[in-house]
Design brief:
Number of strands: 0
Strand content: under 5%
Shape: elongated
Number of helices: 4
Largest sheet: none
Structural class: mainly alpha
Distance between the termini: 46 Å
Length: 71
């Protein structure tokens, strides 16, 4: 079973929604998969992969800031 087969099995057979695709992109990124490979597996552009990753990083920073400031 290759990584591609495992990743493809995570994608629902019907057109995946935003949340499912986002979760897939982030899970593969956390495993150290390249943006190019993630884009191939998730069916989105590398630009979109990088946008999803950047948005998640921003949310993490915002959550850390809120926690640190007591908000």
């Amino acid at each position: 079973c290759t990584l591609s087969q495992v990743a493809r099995s995570m994608i629902p057979s019907c057109s995946p929604g935003y949340q499912e695709r986002r979760d897939l992109v982030l899970a593969l990124h956390l495993q150290g998969i390249s943006s190019q490979e993630i884009s191939n597996l998730a069916g989105v552009t590398t630009r979109r992969v990088n946008q999803i990753i950047a948005a998640e990083r921003k949310q993490d920073r915002d959550r850390q800031f809120s926690a640190a400031s007591g908000k």
